[in-house]
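Pilot study result, target chain (300 residues):
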Amino acid sequence: MATLTPSADELALGAKRAPDLARNFADRRALTSRALTVGVWVVAILASVPLISVLYMLISQGGARLGLELFTGLPPAGFAAGGGIGNAILGTLVMVAIAALIAIPIGMMGGIHLGVLAPESRLAATSRFLAKALTGFPSILAGVFVYGVLVLGMGTYSALAGGVALSVLMLPTIILTTEQAVRMVPQRMKDAAFGMGCTRTQVIWKVVLPAGLPGILTGVMLGIAGAAGESAPLLFTALFSNYWLESLAEPTASLSILIFNFSGMPFPNQIELAWAAALVLVLIVLVFNILSRFFGRPRY
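Predicted structure:
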């Protein structure tokens, strides 16, 4: 049986018709691509200049005070040397923990309702609109609200009131990210679970939550990072204290309020402590942001 082989003329003709895949840097599209690439790099570098400048100032001004005394000592009165911010770190972590205990369960249940149980209902549409509106809610108004409800009711500023105010700010982030995370779970996985005889509760617990957990944890970490750096709500709820936290029903120190108070003082020691507190606060927020990136990575 004869085989059909192309002749030399046919091969030469095919080579002439084949497109030239070699990059031509003088081509208009190549020049446009390179110009846009350079422009994006320039914009990225310009956008990173403020961040790098802030980090440099924090490290150069506050890094010298980093040490064991900074975390174990108390903020000094007047212009005395020494002291630390350990009570403010503890107060910040306690109030963020209270906020997380309140906002995470409510936010996850709200996100599951919006994304799985009744995504098209009127209640879901109203809740979704309110959650989106709450993302732009001024943080100081959350403090004023909790002040009128909880601080006046208890008769004192407290860590509990500060935690509740922070939970109000965390709640919309967790609700909306949870909704998006559970919506991204493939419908065929839910249908397969229903086909095997699972109830709606079993589908949520065994299929939806495990599959959407990375996105949910990302929203939780972002909410915690945002709450850790808030100061305005704590002015109306937790106020400040120069002592270690002994009860949730008493004024409590926090890093953001310590920075606000000490940065305006005329004493070098307090100013140094303010710089150190700012550095520690940035590191705490950075850790939570890194965790959100880690948990948000696709698992496949």
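One observation from the pilot: Residues 183 and 243 are 46 Å apart (CA to CA). A full batch analysis is planned for the follow-on phase.
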